[in-house]
Amino acid sequence: MKFSKKSEYGLRALLELCETYGGRVLQRHEIAERQNIPVEFLEQILLALKRAGLLASRRGVRGGYSLIKSPEDITLGQVIRILDGPLAPISCVSKTAYQKCADCPYAAKPSCPLQQAMGEVRDAIANILDHYTLSRFAHSK
Amino acid sequence: MKFSKKSEYGLRALLELCETYGGRVLQRHEIAERQNIPVEFLEQILLALKRAGLLASRRGVRGGYSLIKSPEDITLGQVIRILDGPLAPISCVSKTAYQKCADCPYAAKPSCPLQQAMGEVRDAIANILDHYTLSRFAHSK
DNA sequence: TAGTTGTCTAGTGAGTTGCTCAAGATTTCG
DNA sequence: CGAAATCTTGAGCAACTCACTAGACAACTA
């Protein structure tokens, strides 16, 4: 029941990028050094965030990465879903990636006792992470 | 960010055991069949739950497993922690298994921005799972 | 004491995580 | 233009975890 390093690194990288938001770009090695993240691994993360539309990048000598969306418009939930997949603790309660459980005897019945509890957990997690924005994050620094 | 099959199977096995609570014992193959769980895998789970003090077992011909605690006194949180480890999404916010992050640059500083958010998530999860008892579970069946 | 059950320890195949490496594309600067 | 700096892509890999299996052993009961 843990988040991956990918999510953690991704969030920490975004924190750095928030600080130069609107200003200069950051290169991967700058972010990597400041946040103690292996450069090549960080790269994969930054690219994923770019593909998801959070970052822009420029190649070449004065290249680097920069935030493309305002820190107020980026939530922890978004970032974690990009890097770690759905938030739901079991897939039969996921809203973004629902899957019927194959082996559960309750799957056929009208209601599964586990589903209710897990649904509540899912909602609680999503409620927090989808309302936490990067800006709120940076302020508490 | 998912619970393991172990937890899921464990909870479903406990549901079965709730139904015969106070009455007869259940053998592993009975539970396994009704809940579609591989017997030998289930066994490991039952043993873990036994070591944790939730179940009693008897060997031999009329052997089997039975609940040793009342369903009202067993919470989902307990069970999941036994089978899956701590609930915290990152270990620096775990109450049952705290660990300082080795590489995080905020670890040294008074406050880590990630920690606050993750702490809230941890509390939310624990709040739900530690108040959900097996009895509440069985009733909604 | 024979057969049935739980107990324990080890092992295994598939998949994931966290990370590395190498070759290429694009940009800037001299 | 050409060289250097940067991002881009894709492949690869060791360690670990997950879900499950196997087999020897201990205890209970008839």
From TrEMBL, chains A, B:
One of its GO terms (molecular function) is DNA-binding transcription factor activity. This is Putative HTH-type transcriptional regulator, rrf2 family. GO terms for cellular component: cytosol. SUPFAM superfamilies: Winged helix' DNA-binding domain. Keywords: DNA-binding. The lineage of its organism: Bacteria, Pseudomonadati, Nitrospirota, Nitrospiria, Nitrospirales. The keyword Membrane does not apply. It holds the Pfam family Rrf2.
